[in-house]
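Technical note accompanying the year-one report. For the benefit of new consortium partners, we illustrate the data format agreed upon in the data management plan: each record pairs a sequence with a structure-token string. No post-processing was applied to the example shown here.
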Amino acid sequence: MARWIAHLDMDAFYASVDLLRYPMLAGSPVVIGGARMHAPTPLPEGGYAFARLRDYAGRGVVTTATYEARAFGIRSGMGLMKCAALCPDAVLLPTDFDEYRRHSRAFKDAVAGIAPVIEDRGIDEIYIDLGASGADRSDSGRGIALRIRAAVRAATGLSCSIGLAPNKLLAKIASELDKPDGLTLIAEGDLERRIWPLPASRINGIGPKAAARLAEAGIATIGDLARADRLALVVSFGQSYGHWLHESAHGRDDRPVVTHSEPKSISRETTFERDLHPRRDRDELTAILTQLCDKLAGDLERKGYRARTIGIKLRYDDFSIVTRDRSAAHALRDAPSILAAARDCLRRADLGRRLRLLGVRAAGLVVEPAVDAQAGVHAAFAAPAPGAARAAEPERSAHDAPRRGASASLPLFD
């Protein structure tokens, strides 16, 4: 083989991190999703009282679930109310992204200590170029993968599944074949035996719509796709995608492991448990917007970026989506400036309808010296129009206070 590429995928990552804190739930169906109100309650005699799906009411969705919960048909992205009908006794835990990010950094640092040529693909998965990492190829990569898997468990207490193959496409498929805690190697001669019998949708890049169109043409498996006429695929799916389908089915992929890439944007958003009206629920929306801006500022600071453009995203009660953006004269990342920009964007949106979701986005990312925070508030964005009415800022409890100084004097709406 020309090279060995590993794809490492943490097993049920969010749920597994939570089980480290609540080991008494091991082996039980657990669903991660919903709001902080569903956090476990410590009991005076010890232990915890856990929320159950049967008691859930709202519009939240599943972030992830343990394998025991997945056995009931529960999957990421499903509505929690629907999941309650499938497994009413499942434990419901809220998401804790700070804890997930901490464990993510820990497992990636552990891998880098063995094989440092890593492509970060998100909070719970990476690609590793074992050959470029200078690892010993005499064991065909399996020994290195075993060391990596052991190092991840030692650093985090969590299991991962690793796929080994000559390229990224096959390595990703391989990592899913023996979950959890799996190690799967796809070598020469394994393509027809191990890969071709799988559904065509197992190729990363074939989504539900493409899979449905392939099924209409009688193409159900990767093997069917490999045997399909390339010209026919090009005619049906276009030159670029049709050619890619044919190449992928034959296991061909020459993409390198990319160790660094600059993000195009960073965003924070939240879906509400109930529809909120911009006027009647202004106080609640003000707190939510402030917290989103605080968190976005923290993301920018932690990643070392500033943003030239700030935008907002609104999803209305009819599921329609509106976005508005505003560019600044200077790149920024402090919470007060982000909040001021987001409010400016909101003035150009329809605020007479109920909302399901609110999001804030930073784009035009740059790495450059900081602009003065106060100057950013007063100069980067235009002040409100003269004579605009200002509503009093609602009272806040301690847990509503901004983390990074987002201006408490700037209400959500004028």
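Partners are asked to follow this layout when depositing records. Residues 64 and 169 are 24 Å apart (CA to CA).
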